[in-house]
Prior knowledge:
transmembrane; mainly alpha; 3 helices; transmembrane helix
Amino acid sequence: MRIPVAVFGMVVMFVAAVGVLFLGVLGFTPVNACTGACYAPFMMATVGTVVIGLSATFATWFRALREPRAYWPWIGAALMAALYLVALSVAEQVL
């Protein structure tokens, strides 16, 4: 039962990652010349999403004896959504 839950969680995490990356690139790309802090929300949404996705995938499938750890993709999807909300609040302060 863990394998279907883990695979469905990976699909949910992938959809969340695509959504956060799309909205992050669309909403947080600086349009004016800027340095430093104005790139923070963009980097949080792009690099942070990739790091969370790779980490959750690695934690789910690597060295999982017989069965994957089915909760990690769900934690990854929740962290991606939380990261996007944090990037939104940072963008309100910086942009």
